[in-house]
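Progress against Task 2.4 (sequence-to-structure conversion) is shown through the following example record, which the project officer requested during the mid-term review.
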Amino acid sequence: MKLDILTSNENQKVQKTIISQIRDLINFKNLEPGDKLPSERMLSEKFGVSRGNIREAIQKLEFYELLTSIPQSGTFVANIGITALNGMIDDILRLEEPSFKSLVETRILLELKTVRLAALRRTEEDLEAMEKMLEAYTDKVHRGEEAVQEDLLFHLAIAKASGNSTINTFMLMITPGIITNFEKYHVCDKDMSFKGIQEHYDIYEAIKNQDPQLAKQKMKEHFKLLYQYCYNV
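Structure tokens generated for the chain above:
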């Protein structure tokens, strides 16, 4: 386990170094928006790292829309201007891995908004997806099995029902980290899991009845213990 953590940290350092070198290369060559970067092979040789490392760094910059890769054509500087690009890369280099607390805070902020939108916009198909996850969660809890994934899939179904693709994307992004930390800290004990069954059904009923205020209130109640637990870790 320790080796995995060290490897992950080392990989992050390498990635940040490459991103910094790509920024310096763009500035040194005075590349303008739309200009093409050297190939992965050339960058790999120039920076003394593997092509896989180069690809990961480029993908990260693509995620923030600072670079654009076109199949069979190459990778290009995004059309945002060099000043903005430098500022955003500086911010990216300062980013740290999100803590459990920050993930929980982000999730709560997102879901209090998401559940209101879901109550207003849900379709019959959305309700069916929520019911399916509720049943899967309930079955696992009654069998005494861990149901973290089913719990989060229920919440992802709510995010989808919100009809807001950006919120849905953010939820998908933070879910793997939440699952890992839930398992690491054993957040969902038996009592919390059984309590969660009724809380989930209360949220579901409020969404089904298209009552956004009640849905938000039930979600707040659902997160109360999780928020308290998070700050005792």
